[in-house]
Write a structure and sequence with these properties.
Layout (H helix, E strand, L loop, with lengths): L1 E20 L2 E17 L2 E9 L12 H18 L8 H5 L6 H19 L3 H5 L5 E3 L2 E3 L5 H14 L3 E5 L6 H11 L4 E5 L9 H6 L8 E2 L7 H10 L4 E3 L6 H10 L4 E4 L1 H4 L2 H14 L3 E3 L6 H11 L33 E3 L12 H7 E8 L5
Parallel strand pairs: 5-6, 6-7, 7-8, 8-9, 9-10, 10-11
Antiparallel strand pairs: 1-2, 1-13, 2-3, 4-12
Helix pairs in contact: 1-3, 5-6, 9-11
This protein binds 2-succinylbenzoate and magnesium ion.
């Protein structure tokens, strides 16, 4: 496969409901899409990748404009100069650029999609998926009142979701969990995500969550606090899961060796791509540490390859991969993800990411599009 050019497209898509976390509120997504235009053995082929960075650097240091900037000035010139033909070679070609893993992941995803489409092979097969459907949950943001939270969780359980995740922050933690268990019972999976809002001085509050039988508590402490996390693993009955801290395979390896987490959240964007995500899954499986697939409020373009990865055998907990309708009025793909009655979503099995981009919808939400030719490397 020969990469001729790469289109970078910014789209703006309103969320059906605002999503509030301990670090801020998202009312829309401002997303960078990467479209690789290539020539395969049977003619022209294209591939799509979605960058999961947020508009502002609040979840991590990456943000959409920085991702676009680094892609134009530093990633695409290296991709073109190395004459990359296979997704396996993308990470190596971009390696000398530090960080920017969400931007790199989007480039790799687009190359991989194009390569697999050219070969008529699905992402699920390529990554080693072992199931056709994956159990999924819903991540519920911080809401104005606990009554709102209980009603929203009840609605999602009625829809069939396999578990509920609740965003927490100091002052919105123990009572919301108590009310959810009191009003909706004990026989559904419940977990919480702090997005780094606590510190070692909050251990008593976090220990108070032990009584609710949570599946896990996600990222209680800031990204860099690995030793504090080791102590927290010892102090809590609730399994401790890391998201933001796991920035790449090396950190994941350290966390596994140190016993700094009971569970690992895998987001391909955060760790530099689906190929790194697969290797991380393999490492966690070998270490006997459960993993689950995180989410970044993706469109169908980002969700499809995530479903393929989440179909690997180590993903034993339901993923943050909800149906398209939980995020968007109109998704940008022609086969938006739907929830099956048993709380699962089907893994796309067509070539590449297995879903088609709806170019008309996409055009209606595009804010900018730029084309970058392989022949014009600087
Ligand atoms: O921490 O898991 C997170 C969304 C944006 C940024 C960070 C996170 C999230 C979610 C949403 O929890 C999960 C989803 O895509 O449904
Ligand atoms: Mg998280």
């Amino acid at each position: 496969m020969d990469i001729g050019s790469v289109e970078l497209r910014r789209i703006e898509l309103p969320l059906v409901t605002p999503f509030q976390t301990s670090f801020g509120t998202w009312t829309f997504r401002d997303i960078l899409l990467v479209r690789v235009l290539a020539t395969g053995p049977d003619g022209p082929v294209e591939g799509w990748g979605e960058c999961v960075a947020g508009t502002q650097p609040l979840y991590s240091s990456e943000y959409t404009s920085a991702a676009e900037d680094v892609t134009v000035d530093h990633l695409l010139p290296r991709l073109f100069a190395a004459r990359v033909r296979h997704a396996d070679d993308v990470a190596g070609a971009l390696e000398e650029v530090r960080g920017h893993r969400m931007a790199k992941a989007a480039v790799e995803a687009a190359v991989l999609d194009a390569e697999l489409r050219a070969a008529g092979r699905s992402m699920a097969d390529h990554l080693g998926a072992t199931v056709d459907r994956v159990p999924v949950g819903v991540s519920i943001g911080i809401l104005p009142t606990i009554d709102d939270l209980v009603a929203t969780a009840a609605r999602h359980l009625d829809e069939g979701y396999a578990r509920i995740k609740v965003k927490i922050k100091p002052g919105w933690d123990v009572e919301p969990c108590r009310r959810l268990r009191a009003e909706l019972g004990d026989d559904f999976g419940l977990q919480v995500d702090a997005n780094a809002a606590y510190g070692p001085g909050d251990v008593d509050t976090l220990r108070a969550l032990d009584e609710f039988g949570l599946l896990l508590i996600e990222q209680p402490y800031p990204e860099e606090r690995i030793v504090d996390n080791i102590e927290l693993v010892q102090a809590l009955q609730t399994p401790v899961c890391l998201d933001e801290t796991i920035v790449d395979e090396a950190v994941c390896d350290d966390v596994l060796r140190l016993g700094a987490a009971d569970v690992i959240n895998i987001k391909p964007g955060r760790v530099g791509g689906h190929l790194a995500g697969k290797r991380m899954h393999d490492a966690c499986l070998a270490a006997g540490v459960p993993v689950w697939h995180g989410g970044m409020l993706e469109t169908g373009i980002g969700r499809a390859p995530n479903l393929a990865l989440a179909a690997l055998p180590g993903f034993t907990l339901p993923g943050d991969i909800s149906a398209a309708a939980r995020y968007w009025e109109t998704d940008v793909v022609t086969e938006p993800a739907v929830l099956e009655p048993d709380g699962t979503i089907r893994v796309p099995r067509g070539p590449g990411i297995g879903v088609e981009v709806d170019l008309d919808v996409l055009a209606s939400v595009t804010t900018t599009a730029t084309l970058h030719h392989a022949g014009f490397t600087r």
